[in-house]
Amino acid sequence: MRPFSYERAHDLASAIRAASHQADAPLHAPIQFLAGGTTLLDLMKIDVMRPDRVIDINPLEKTFSEITVTPMGLRLGALARMSAVAHHPAVEREYPVVSQALKLGASAQLRNMASLGGNVLQRTRCSYFRDTSWHECNKRDPGSGCAALQGLNRKHAILGTSEHCIATYPGDFAQALIALDAAVEIAGAKGNREVPFRTLHKLPGDTPHIETSLATGEIIVSFHIPAGAYARRSLYLKVRDRESYEFASASAAVALDLADGVVREARIALGGVATIPWRAVEAEDVLKGTMLDEVRARVAAEAAFAGARTFGGNDFKPELGRRTLVRALLEAAALEIR
Amino acid sequence: MSVQIKANGDMIGRAVPRIDGRLKVTGAACYPSDVVLDDTAHAFLVMSTIARGRISALDLTEAQAVDGVIDILTYENTKGKVHKVRFFALGGYTSTSIVPLDTRKIWHDGQIIAMVVAETFEAAREAAYMIRVDYMERRAVSGLDGRKPQPRAAAGFLSSEPGVGDPETAYQEADVKIDAYYSTPAQHHNAIELYATTCAWSGDQLTVYESSQYVYGLKNGVAKQLGIRPERVRAVSPFVGGAFGSKAAITPRTALVAIAAKRLGRPVKLVATRQQGFTVSSYRAETQHHIKLGADRSGRLTSLSHEGWEISSRADDYKVAGTDTTSLLYACPNVATHVNIVHADRSTPGFMRSPAEVPYMFALESAMDELAVKLRMDPVELRRLNDTQIDPINQKPFSSRSLIACYDRAAAAFGWAKRNPEPGSMQDRDWLIGWGCATACYPTNIGPAEVRVTLAPNGKARVRTAGHDLGTGAYTAIALTAAEFLGIPLEDVNVELGDSSLPPAPVAGGSNATASICNAVAHACEDIRERLARAASHEGALRGVDPAVIRLREGMLVGADKSEPLKSALLRIGFGPVEGHAKYTPEVASVPIKLLGHTLLSKGIPVLTVGTSAGNHVQYAFGAEFVEVRVHKRTREIRVPRLVGAFAAGRIVSPITARSQLLGALIWGVASALHEETEIDERVARYVNKDLADYMIPVSADIRDVEVILVPEEDNKVNALGIKGVGELGNVGTNAAIANAVYHATGRRIRNLPIRMEDLL
Ligand SMILES: Cc1cc2nc3c(=O)[nH]c(=O)nc-3n(C[C@H](O)[C@H](O)[C@H](O)COP(=O)(O)OP(=O)(O)OC[C@H]3O[C@@H](n4cnc5c(N)ncnc54)[C@H](O)[C@@H]3O)c2cc1C
Ligand code: SF4
């Protein structure tokens, strides 16, 4: 860790103002917001992130941690803690995929600290990214190369990759958001804007160090998940090497609107396999209007991974991903909805 | 000294919670990493980021400018300061022959190339990040490719190579044959307590606070490295937050911290980070195995050959050579073994819990299961049929061997009889169920130990020896033994360990400590009893009673139906405490150990009698392990909801802590089968997953039912108290039991660890 100054934000506007004038992409910026700190402090300790100034936004928690459930949908403050949302009775009942994605993430201690805003902005677990003794990492050091391409890449992505970066987006909650067509409300120097959550994360392309569409100084203030007939019949399936406290090798967020076994609408997002939270639109299209059975689920899964590219260590992931999706779809179809 | 050491009270074997438990859970136990002395400066290591080559330039300018930096040790100012000390496996002290900060040469990734010392840990760390290093890098080789069989021509190195008969011919003629390759990955101990060292000088007297499994080795080894007399060094390590072999030999860091402390004239503390820990000490290197088994149609083994390949560094010939064990496990008349060392650009490997048995028994016990499948025979019956009370190599009897009793007890507890042997035949909804088993075994090692016991007139005892409690329960086992032989309550015994100013005790390695130290404690207590008894036979209630029949029981001296309170007996022989002293040499020790054992012990050189060097017999502890695995029928996650292990290891001194050892070992076995693997980027021979997020071990949610059964066993040949060790027994064979269960669940035989879901897709 390197020396930095620490200050507490008194209000949203001053926090934004303080951070707005910097040039770098937000995740490399010399001024960083501190929410739960479970990503930021971790990366500062291992010298991957080196901010000069850390602005603690927790004083804003009262205003920005509300959980509101209305017939229109669910609004979640960006400073709400993962555990608070995960165990909220209405979220558990009406949006099981949201609750489950949060409950299956990290550990109980981390969930008590970590905020939703920080969660969607958590950074990849690529080991080469997290260890600065590796020189090649375009995400950490633009233009330096990518050690993972021909290195150890069992954990790496197969969807949305580029020749510059194949790092997996590691989080779980974002899959639930993207599947349910959430919007994210962002406060910036020019006021607030609400954009589809799917536009928040950017494919690595040839700028893997630019991970989101946030402008410098912008703060995520809330997430809005619209109500939908499919939300109740939803689940998050996380397949991983151990039972808990581990990132997904493959995961699927699935929400279904079924009528007599026929899919009226399907919402599918995939985790552990892609560089960004991944919406599997092709698979949704395959399912729409069909009877959901094993064969159909498999066809949808084939469609979801049609564009997959593997890199040696992760050669198994397309098949694991397909099986994960099939299992999630069949389990969601079998749910008893009261 | 030949005395009738016989445990006849009810202390040894009593189920008591660990006596240091309260200190530990309240945080009162002071681990070496907790030590902060006045005016301490803090050190931070800088490690090489290449595996082979030379440092061409080292730029310290920016680092030196960091506020609070006091000193930076590099080869430029430290060269020649650390004397070369022999590698521990050659009878020396060090974990590696590489001398720290001695040259520009880089032998392996993560080699210490500088140490920054600053007023605070933070300043030292910041400065460490600012040191610029240029290398002349050469192409490095990481070693075995774990997934491909090695050609026999690999750089050879002969082990003792136990063998008998004509295995090749017997194999050709066998009715049923198995010929397979197996491999195990590199693994790191990752004890929760990091590698921490504080050095403080007072004049020319050095005190080293360092988490250690061998304070006498540390004291003597560091003295040699610094070129000072061992009397000048004291090593302190009363509590150890996990070690597993990694804190036995002295690592390069300690001498550097001592040198820095001397230069600065103030204490220096180093806590290596988790990542640095991967190369600060040793590790279990990857291994490969070629096993050939031949059997007749009834299942009787006729031929066994086991060839192993192991990685070592370029600096050292380290090997574990588990063929010493696998060659004598079953009744087989024709055995051949061979072990090869492959040198690579790696740090030197070293002991890690059951160093030899974990990898080698994985191979053999997997092959035995494959043989059972081929024979269409129950794997338990295959072990029963090939059980032996005679070591097939040397034709010596086992001192005791309760393998089949363990199998029977564990099988019954597990419900093995309900197993359908057909792979894939057992299911619970979406989960395939597999049941598997394997043999556990570990040699019974023992060494000389010296103990002082004092008994005060108030009836309170102090036991002092430089043994170690690594979290194993040594304090408790030793206290129980003293309470037993002094006939006093457990609360009245105070045990002092982990300090080289105490009488010497052996390295806490090879599961020898309980046997070595408790026998020594018994002798020291006997010394006290003898003196009290002799005096009591002259006057008082026991006058005229033969001292030999007088015992210490429940606070009394008792003999010939007479008794006298301990306190009055104590007062009779003086007003101060009475001291008993024992220099115990194992009954089974060889003549050279009998002659030289205590001299070497006081010099910190391990002198253990091992399973196969005990004279007229071989001595091993045994166990049988049964596991249930569940594999999801679609997504193939592998979980282990149930483990049952039955173990027979002679007299169990402290059943609760022994059970904890075995329980932890079984859990470690799950890790070793499914989780642990140090990943190596072979392009540059560097480790990639150097933290506990990426270096996987099971979490609580992975572990459900674990049952440990202690099978009674009496062995009066191993030592007077009949103690075998349990520390390393439990995690032997677990990985094979799991692989065998995975086969049963899925029909897939996985021969390379760890087993991951992709192996079963
Ligand atoms: C060992 C471990 C295991 C984990 N396992 C999982 C897992 O299985 N699944 C999973 O999903 N996650 C997992 N995580 C990640 C964890 O969920 C995230 O670290 C956490 O959610 C981040 O939230 P935070 O509030 O602590 O963020 P912080 O660390 O405070 O912030 C992270 C980043 O976001 C920025 N930021 C924070 N809030 C805002 C905001 N409102 N607006 C703009 N910028 C903001 C910060 O400046 C910083 O750059 C794990 C983490 C660890 C350490
Ligand atoms: S995958 Fe991305 S994060 Fe990982 S090394 Fe390559 S560029 Fe860096």
From TrEMBL, chain A:
Domain spans labelled FAD-binding PCMH-type: 1-230
The keyword Cell inner membrane is annotated on this UniProt entry: no
The organism's place on the tree of life at top rank: Bacteria
SMART domains to which the protein is assigned, alphabetical: CO_deh_flav_C
Gene3D superfamilies linked to this entry: 3.30.465.10, CO dehydrogenase flavoprotein, C-terminal domain, Uridine Diphospho-n-acetylenolpyruvylglucosamine Reductase, domain 2
Keywords noted in UniProt: FAD, Flavoprotein
Alphabetized Pfam families for the sequence: CO_deh_flav_C, FAD_binding_5
InterPro entries hit by this protein: CO_DH_flav_C, CO_DH_flav_C_dom_sf, Diverse_Substr_Oxidored, FAD-bd_PCMH, FAD-bd_PCMH-like_sf, FAD-bd_PCMH_sub1, FAD-bd_PCMH_sub2, Mopterin_DH_FAD-bd
Protein name: Xanthine dehydrogenase family protein subunit M
Protein source organism: Microvirga terricola
TrEMBL record, chain B:
Keyword Signal on entry: no
Keywords: Molybdenum, Oxidoreductase
SUPFAM superfamilies per the UniProt record, alphabetical: CO dehydrogenase molybdoprotein N-domain-like, Molybdenum cofactor-binding domain
Sections of the chain in a coiled coil: none
Domain Aldehyde oxidase/xanthine dehydrogenase a/b hammerhead: 26-139
Residue intervals passing through the bilayer: none
PANTHER family attached to this UniProt entry: ALDEHYDE OXIDASE 1-RELATED (PTHR11908:SF132), XANTHINE DEHYDROGENASE (PTHR11908)
Protein name (record): Xanthine dehydrogenase family protein molybdopterin-binding subunit
Naturally occurring in which organism (per UniProt): Microvirga terricola
Taxonomic lineage of the native organism: Bacteria, Pseudomonadati, Pseudomonadota, Alphaproteobacteria, Hyphomicrobiales
